Amino acid sequence: MASVETAAEHERILREIESTDTNCIGPTLRSVYDGQEHGLFMEKLDARIRNHDREIEKMCNHHFQGFVDSITELLKVRGEAQKLKSQVIETNVRLQEDGKVLIGSMEELKQCRVQQRNIATTVDKLAHCLPVLEMYSRLQEQMRAKRYYPALRTLEQLEHTCLPRAGQYRFCSIMAENIPKLRMHIRETAMTQLRDFLESIRKHSDKIGETAIKQAQLQRSLDSAVTLQPRALIGRRGRKEAAVVTESSGEGGSPLSEQDSGILDVEDEEEEDVPGAQDLVDFSPVYRCLHIYTVLGLRDVFENYYRKQRRKQARLVLQPHSNMHETLEGYRRYFNQIVGFFVVEDHILHTTQGLVNRAYVEELWELALSKIVAALRTHSSYCDDPDLVLDLKNLIVLFADTLQGYGFPVSQLFDMLLEMREQYGEILLKRWNLTFRQILDQDNFSPIPVSTEQEYRQYTSQFPLQDPELEKLSFPKKLPFSEFVPKAYCQLKEFIYACLKYSEDLHLSSTEIDDMIRKSTNLLLTRTLSNCLQYAIKKKNVGLAELVQVIINTTHLEQSCHFLEEFITNITNVPPETANATKLYGTATFKDARHAAEAEIYTSLNAKIDQFLQLADYDWMSAAQSSGGLTTSDYLIDLITFLRSTFSVFTNLPGKVAQTACMSACKHISTSLMQLLLDPEVRQISIGALHQLNVDLKECESFARAGPVAGFQGDTLLLAFSDLRQLLDLFTQWDWSTYLADYGKSTCKYLRVNPHTALALLEKMKETSRKNVVLAQFKKADRDRQKLIDAVIKQLRNLIAQHHA
């Protein structure tokens, strides 16, 4: 079976050798040599060769004659061929000779065609490379000129359009490698410029805010009735915004300008008197950086960075200096910085598309508003100068109006100003307290002498004096009040003006202003002026004449209260009969002060009387003398003289005040003399001492009858001495039977004698009488008197016991 397969394989190889090109017979023969039947194959190959040789031989034998004929013809053809060959060679030589020029021309043409093709290829390649080089050159120029936004646009065009067309060249690869570096450089440079811009506006926000406030102030002064246009401070904004819109579309050029960031010099102010924010600040770094980051696909990164940095700056701006409250300039710088900050943010809001939005700005403003109000509350509380508070209020109003013009809500600022109004009122009260005290300290408490009509009109213009009788008097004459009255009245009006100044521009109604002024004026009257008058009345070394003048002054000030009402009505245009209108408490204030002065007069007069009574030096053990030999005590004479001179200056006082003072003085004298009799330290009193006291009492009664003060009816003033008079009459006349018999009856002669008082005085006389009895060695008259005193004492004790039961 194996031999059959081998034979078949050898047959196949032989057929393949016969039918295959000799160039490809190698693999076939290799397969033979690789096998194990090499010898057998060689035998078959030899057999096949012998078969072919036999067939060739048969073929040759069959075609031999034809072959001979062909050889004969071939020999003939060879001769002709030799001739033809020689002719061809000759022709070729001639052709070669004739074609040398043509071949040279053809070579030249070929070379020219090659050069032409190379030139066309070069031109084509250059056509693609030159824009790359031109674009790169333009990029370098823009980079050198710091025009980064168009440079970034150029870079985008170079990367996505020009370089792909140029092909793979080394310089293109270098450019492609530099593109990310250039982008990073542009990004970092733009961010650096933005940082410079942020630092610049942080440093110059004071100037920006000052300019904004000045323009708002100018706008308000030009036409306070016209509503401020929002964002009026952005000077020539329309022209600037048009440029921004153009650049936002991304078609050519850079946004706005390519100037350095910072505050620009304002030299040409012909177009506007006050430059706008756009005139002071170059916002191009912001726009440029925004566009660059937008192109780079990093707009969110830029927005977050910008907002984060501005929030940090806001916190710095809103942090007031520790000594801001010391001067108005400190507040002004604080407000200028805040206004400058929000003017910039408002401009960015309206000139960029989404860098900041309204919600972000409102959030910043709410944060700022809370911090501003807290800072102002804290620092204004340190202020004790009303002028500074008033200037601060005007500055806050201007600050609020400026920001309100940009659409920021400022109601909290005006609410805080209403809170500050209370503080301002307290500071005013403190200042006017010092003013009133200074006026009182400088006042001489004497009527004002006027020598001419001009002086008189001068005082009546300061104080509404209406006294027809005084006007009829010829010059020189005296006004009834002292310098304090016109000065105090003028100060009251000045206080009202000060309150009115604070209420201006607070958007309050006339009724609210009127109510505020009246309440503040009431505080001034009831607290400040009242305390000052009490201070003047209660201070040491104040004389009766001064107290009298205080009463006269307060009387005239009380009469002027309705003029103050009219004054407030005229400046607020709110009639006093308006419902819920606050009334002035001036009348009550001056009445209280007058009553205090009257009480102080009574107290001072009694204190002076006490000083005289301290000089009383009675000899309580003096012997009895005839009434003709006794004289009034010296201290009492001096006291009566003092009272006469004192009551003589009471002529300008209201009648009841003078009468009350006189009655009070007489009662005090009577009570003091009674106390001298009943003094526990005086243990013994003789009848002679009672006679001396009786003489002094008669002098007092004489003074009372003389009528030191007009207005008393009959002997009314004598009633002040009636208690002492009846007591002395009872003892000097020794009319005990009448007293004991009529006691308790309304017709009793000694109705005002208290049995306790009589008993106490009898006890002292008993001691004296007992001592005299011992010294007189029991004289009968003294013994009888002693017995009589004992009997009266016993009866008085029984009377007291019965009355008590």
From TrEMBL:
User: What is a biological process (GO) this protein takes part in?
Assistant: intracellular protein transport
The record's annotation in InterPro entries points to:
EXOC6/Sec15 (IPR007225), EXOC6/Sec15_C (IPR046361), EXOC6/Sec15_C_dom1 (IPR042045), EXOC6_Sec15_N (IPR048359), EXOC6PINT-1/Sec15/Tip20_C_dom2 (IPR042044)
Region Disordered, as annotated, extends over 239-269
Name residues in a coiled coil: none
Keyword flag tRNA-binding: no
Domain named Exocyst complex component EXOC6/Sec15 N-terminal: residues: 44-213
Give a GO cellular-component term: exocyst
- On the tree of life, the source organism's domain of life is Eukaryota
Instruction: Give the signal peptide as a residue range, or say none if absent.
Output: none
Question: Which keywords belong to this entry?
Answer: Exocytosis, Transport
Residue ranges constituting the Exocyst complex subunit EXOC6/Sec15 C-terminal domain according to the UniProt record: 412-764
Q: What does this protein do?
A: Component of the exocyst complex involved in the docking of exocytic vesicles with fusion sites on the plasma membrane.
Q: Which family does it belong to?
A: Belongs to the SEC15 family.
Q: Could you identify this protein by its name?
A: Exocyst complex component
Q: Which organism is it from?
A: Poecilia latipinna (sailfin molly)
